[in-house]
Amino acid sequence: MARRHKRRHPAAADRWRRTLPKLDLAAIPQSNATGYPEPFDREVQERWWRRLAPAGGLTAFGASHVVLKPGAWSSQRHWHNGEDELLVMLTGEAMLVEDNGRTVLRAGDVAAWPMGSTNGHHLRNESDADCSFVVVSAGDRDAGGAYSDIDMVFTEEGYLHRDGTPYPAKPL
Amino acid sequence: MARRHKRRHPAAADRWRRTLPKLDLAAIPQSNATGYPEPFDREVQERWWRRLAPAGGLTAFGASHVVLKPGAWSSQRHWHNGEDELLVMLTGEAMLVEDNGRTVLRAGDVAAWPMGSTNGHHLRNESDADCSFVVVSAGDRDAGGAYSDIDMVFTEEGYLHRDGTPYPAKPL
Fold this sequence. Notes:
Number of strands of chain A: 12
Radius of gyration of chain A: 18 Å
Shape of chain A: globular
Helix content of chain A: under 10%
Oligomer: homodimer
Structural class of chain A: mainly beta
Number of domains of chain A: 1
CATH topology of chain A: Jelly Rolls
């Protein structure tokens, strides 16, 4: 007799069964929105992101496609207490900046940041052309983290000064 | 007074703090090992994979870098009950095969397969050159799944015939 194979999400299964899994990136809206309070929002004004996980029906991890215009940063330099991150460079060139130096990332390069490592990281587009990447993350977002170069941390309550005073803006 | 920011994995943090997060792909061993029983192992003999998550210290999701030599398949065509998958094409060209057709994937293309969708998928390298991709997955591996074109399912017990009889080989 056949063993039973549980379908955990029959509604989701029906929904996605007839959908091609190749994502139509151009059809997914881009946004440069940020929850960063002033003045920390300036460096990410030309960071254009698309949420891939909802477009693909994924719930087990988050994934974004990001284009950095020349001069833009991927974020303020930061680290996560409870989230792992993996980045795959698609096009162009980005400078990865961390406590211990600078590393150029180009198409096909892969970088990984494990939860709990306090070696803050971000990418800066220091080139004259766009660069793009896909970044995946999973874990406990509410565990928070901190920004390496500025007076800001993030918690489940939002963005705070290091002394615990909240910033006015809210995370996205 | 400063809020407390819990460091969940201090040992891991210490371990990775001095490690550059850009992965040295060439230094990560490649394998073409497969747990598939005969004769289903043939199509993946020239699938060369590297585990990225352990190399990067990641635990919240799995990630692999895969090279398919000409003719090789990424897997037998399959779907997962409890795991989401996201694939980012890096180089070359692969044919994505599903219930509802064939789609070419090229560098920069992204495909997503949500858990519970029974639309089986795999990639075939039908070109004359290598192709490569990164694939990320997370969820409940033990929830199992099935192969669309062959008499095989996978469960926490391993590979089984559809009638529940086990195959001799074990999953990796």
